[in-house]
Design a protein that fits this description.
Helix content is 38%, strand content 33%. The protein starts with a helix and ends with a helix. The chain is of the alpha+beta class and 225 residues long.
């Protein structure tokens, strides 16, 4: 039984990866060719020496990526520049009811609990699985620091671990350009970690392109009022 369940999970994640890759190539072709992957500590150190200026153009038109190992966990990191204010980016990222617009591999989301005292929101996610029949359901707790950061970690459901953060930083005094950083680590449990890492990495460009598009659209709407 365990062997069958493991096989189903592997097949489900494989299909999810294919769906994400297709979405990336057909819906957000502008991100193609502008992703910088850093796969080891030596290259990661080199990436830091390049400096922000050397990567700014890539982040204006798409994104850059890297990997960071913290306590043995490999976090996949994406960075992009959004022509919108930090507050507008924060609003897009915390619109959990519409998170499916940012994450193409999500089937549905819903808020299950919130605490204004602790600035936390518990969100239920349903990740698309095999032929949209088998789903991965889990709950993340989002710790919100307006408008600069959102930390999240798994409370229950699928996967052994699911954690990371969004960092939102203003780039100039006008407040109309924002550097957005997305860091994510997932431990798939029974699912091979190499497959999990591949899925997270392949999903990153689509996610960042969607965040950029929705936040910039919000900025345009505000400017027209």
């Amino acid at each position: 039984m365990k062997r069958s369940l493991s096989l189903i999970l592997v097949l489900a994640f494989s299909l999810t990866s294919n769906l994400t890759a297709q979405a990336k190539s057909t819906k957000h072709s502008t991100t193609a060719g502008v992703t910088k992957s850093v796969s080891n500590s030596k290259n990661a150190a080199h990436a830091k020496t390049i400096g922000f200026a050397g990567l700014e153009n890539k982040m204006e038109t798409g994104m850059v990526t890297a990997e960071e190992v913290v306590d043995g966990k490999t976090f996949h990191i994406g960075k992009t520049i959004v022509n919108a204010s930090p507050e507008q980016v924060f609003d897009v990222l915390t619109d959990y009811a519409n998170a499916t617009k940012l994450f193409d591999n999500l089937k549905k989301t819903s808020v299950v609990a919130s605490s204004s005292d602790e600035n936390t929101t518990d969100v239920s996610f349903s990740l698309k699985g095999l032929a949209n029949i088998w789903n991965f359901d889990y709950v993340l707790r989002m710790k919100e620091t307006f408008p600069s950061r959102i930390d999240f970690h798994r409370l229950s459901g699928a996967f052994k671990a699911n954690e990371g953060y969004w960092k939102i930083e203003p780039l100039d005094a006008s407040g109309k350009r924002t550097l957005v950083t997305y860091s994510k680590y997932v431990d798939g449990g029974m699912i091979p970690q190499s497959m999990v890492n591949k899925q997270v990495k392949e999903a990153m460009p689509t996610v960042m392109a969607n965040v950029k598009a929705h936040a910039e659209a919000k900025a345009v709407q505000v400017s027209l009022k």
